[in-house]
Design a protein that fits this description.
This protein is mostly helical. It contains 5 helices and 4 strands; from the N terminus they run E-E-H-H-H-E-H-H-E.
């Protein structure tokens, strides 16, 4: 079964995460059960399991100019598993910025690296 948010060849998650538009490989959306590891799917489907700053983090995606970002879904999903959906979230660079009252860059990733920009 493909992702329940992949409806009529439209990814409903794009409404919440426009940064998904720059992911080069959408195979996860149509894969059998692979979508269950997708950070976008999990954040929408299981909001109470995600970090308390999830809405602010989502806000970064909504406000960002994503047209120049290069994002790899596998890396994002790995970071989601490592930070967003477990107690390790307090080690997330974005979490730390929000907790200290700072506004993180939309390019900042949970491990503290920055998303690359397209040339």
């Amino acid at each position: 079964m493909s992702c329940p948010m992949y409806i009529d060849f439209t990814r409903e998650c794009i409404k919440k995460f426009k940064s998904i538009l720059n992911i080069g490989n959408y195979d996860i959306c149509g894969s059998n059960d692979g979508y269950k590891d997708c950070i976008f799917y999990k954040t929408i489907k299981y909001p109470d399991d995600a970090c308390k700053y999830r809405d602010k983090c989502i806000g970064l995606h909504i406000k960002a100019d994503v047209s120049k970002m290069k994002i790899d879904i596998d890396i994002l999903n790995s970071m989601g598993k490592q930070y967003c959906f477990n107690e390790n979230r307090t080690n997330c660079a974005i979490y730390k910025k929000f907790k200290s009252g700072e506004e993180p860059s939309a390019l900042l990733t949970p491990d503290g690296t920055m998303i690359e920009l397209k040339e």
